[in-house]
Amino acid sequence: MNLPCSVIADLLPLYAENLAGAESRALVEEHLNGCPACRARLEELKTPAAVPAADPAPLKQVRRAVRRKRRIAVLLAVLLSLAAAVGVFGALSTPEYLPQARAVRLETREDGLVTIEFLPGVTSYELTREKLPDSGGISYSLSAYSTALARLTGSGTPQEIVLNPQQERLERVYYCEMTGSDDVLLYGDADGGRITLPRLSLSFYALAAFAAVTAGVVLTLVFHKNARLRGWLIDLTLLPACWLAAQLCICGVSLTSYTLTRDFVLAALLAALLYAACVVLHRAVLGKKH
Question: 191 or 69: which carries more pLDDT confidence?
Answer without folding.
Answer: 69
